[in-house]
Amino acid sequence: MFVDQPSILATNSMEGTTLAAGSNARDLIGRSPDHVALHKPLANGVISDSGYAGLMIRHFIDNARKRSFPKWHRMAVTFPCCGTRLERRAIIEAATLSGASKVFLVPNLISAAIGAGLKINSPRVGILASLGGGICEVGIVGLGHIIYSEGARFGGETFDYAIHEYLLHSYNIQITMDMAEKIKKKLAYAESSKAPLETMRITGREAGRGGLKNIGITSTEISKALEAPINSIIDLIQEALDNASPAVLADLENFPIVLVGGLSLLHGLPALIAKMTGFQVVVATNPLYASLKGCSTVVDDPSYHVYCMGSA
After folding, report:
1. Average pLDDT for consecutive 10-residue bins of the chain (312 residues)?
2. Are 37 and 13 in contact (CB under 8 A)?
3. Hey, what CATH class is 108-154+228-289 in?
4. CA distances from 312 to 5, 183, 291, 294 (A)
5. Structural Rg of the chain based on CA atoms
6. Is the N or C terminus of the chain more exposed, i.e. has fewer CB atoms within 10 Å?
7. Any idea which fold 156-226 has?
């Protein structure tokens, strides 16, 4: 069973029923009548509303299985290193509300390392950067443990918002966050000076006046607008290296920094990180789903249960 959907839920506010979830709910943004309420139960990579999160997960599971079912078995859910105990409890509660009878809580860095193929039990350590939509994390992993970790509540959504704000202030044009994400994927480069000359025409709402406005934008200007969040990623990785022991740094001479998550696919980011840190950098195979693959392994193989932070 595999589902890849945005974390949005649409409910009927008068009847309290679920209308849509994922991409179907996202399509209702800006188009829904008053009685339809849209919810984003995940914020900055953690669950902000366990009730709506449970409904959303249950909707995804029911649709994937083509039928509704009252109770099923095991679920592994990742948890960021910078999350709080209350947020951890909300994750377990949401998973239980969705119908899971057993919930394994797995540190995201461990799950991503397993999914990326790192030998986490090896005495030789590795460094992993998980660059997701709501949270970026960097960790040093070895002997089955996270030796060092640091996370910050920014990610791909921060990049999308930066593009949205740049276009609003520079061109007086309002676009959807979906459009901002498309612009990021097509035009955003980690180094604006190395961005090839690419252009894209977009249409949005003219702020303050209404009506449609059509403009052309370039890869260079979009890349410059993203310099601040890109520098935040570099700083996060450099901080991990600054906290690493000489033995860890010696291991990194032979084992590259591994990137997972959607932002690892940003044009030129691995090369920029390598230039700024002096270490080799590689993107994991299928980086978008490395953490998901790790979760699947934890659920299916009892020997991996030792890596869970807790279960319920």
Report:
1. 79 86 86 88 77 83 61 76 82 80 88 90 86 92 86 92 96 94 96 93 91 95 96 95 88 88 96 94 94 88 76 51
2. yes
3. alpha beta
4. 25, 41, 20, 19
5. 21
6. N
7. Actin; Chain A, domain 4 (3.90.640)
